[in-house]
Amino acid sequence: MSRIDGSASQSEAIHILGGGAIGAPFSVFLSRAGTQVRLVRTSRGDFHPRSDEITVDTPFERVSATVETVSVASLPARIGLVVVACKAYANPSLAKVLRSRVVKGPIILLQNGLGVEKPFIEAGFPSVQRAVVYATSQAKGQDRFSFRMIRESPLGIVAGSERALLASVATLSTPFMPFRSEPDITPEVWRKTIINSVFNSICTIMEEDNGLFCRNVAAREVAEAVVGECVRLAAVRGVTLAEEEIMDSILSISGRSTQLISTLQDVRAGRPTEMRFLNEELARLAGCNPRVDMKATSLLAKLVEAKVGERSSVD
Ligand SMILES: NC(=O)C1=CN([C@@H]2O[C@H](COP(=O)(O)OP(=O)(O)OC[C@H]3O[C@@H](n4cnc5c(N)ncnc54)[C@H](OP(=O)(O)O)[C@@H]3O)[C@@H](O)[C@H]2O)C=CC1
Ligand SMILES: CC(C)(CO)C(=O)C(=O)O
Predict the structure, then answer these.
(1) Are residues 205 and 306 in the same domain?
(2) Residue 82, domain CATH
(3) ipTM confidence score
(4) Which InterPro entries match (predicted)?
(5) Which of 112, 213, 254 for a ligand 2 pocket mutation test, highest count of atoms within 8 Å of Cβ?
């Protein structure tokens, strides 16, 4: 059963779109909490639904669950709550697929970056929420992941009701990945986008793990330059953030994560990156009126692009 305000009923399966480093562990955490989950492999063609045992190593314990895994083609005609955990460049095609179904529950995005919700808003979905995920996760093999929660992830409304938001927080929170309702998600999205613009570009260019900023003063100085530029851009756009607080978050994440940032993994695997939602989007906004100087942020995007180009000319 679904309700009129876009909150999903407890009896409906949650569909998690994207079975990668975030989506697969999330499906395990929810399954372990007794929630019915279906993991949807968004990059895969049609295949028969199957049940996979997925294992997640957290710093405290190893958790496993058998999760029903389906392809996009197997999405039912009526769907309740949808979690989007694939790479953000897949959103336009997913919004199109969801448009061909009746989506009763909210669509909840777990992705990094600015503007990732646009395809779902433009497609007219009435209930869209965004989480800003404070966790690091990496695939360690077939159906095996290493996941570390950093802190509670804020979840807020892009479109829809507060009642639906509170229901989502209650449904999705587990001790492994807790959420909290956030009345104004925009500053949270900017804060995390700035953090990602630092990690995803600098760690990728240097081919270093997330711990880089705690051990390398020069990398930290470049991070400070990016944060300074981005905070000035945010201010011009009406979002007030504090440079020091963002640098503290970067150093706190860096001190607790030795994982490889997804952009570096993507470049190495010859996959597209999400830079268009991070440094590139910030640089694009900085070029609009009123203009803001974003040299460091945009040059880092160019270096990642250069690295992608180098890789593809070698392969
Ligand atoms: N990893 C992390 O620590 C964190 C990641 N995030 C964000 O979470 C989101 C998911 O990242 P993560 O799980 O790490 O990524 P992964 O690379 O591990 O997984 C990528 C997912 O995107 C899907 N995908 C990739 N390319 C396409 C495509 N062309 N069309 C459709 N689907 C595609 C894959 O499909 P399939 O299901 O078929 O494999 C897979 O589910 C990203 O937006 C990322 O920024 C946020 C915080 C932390
Ligand atoms: C900033 C960081 C490393 C942690 O949340 C992240 O978002 C990611 O791994 O994609």
Answers:
(1) yes
(2) 3.40.50.720
(3) 0.98
(4) 6-PGluconate_DH-like_C_sf, 6PGD_dom2, KPA_reductase, KPR-Related, KPR_N, NAD(P)-bd_dom_sf
(5) 112
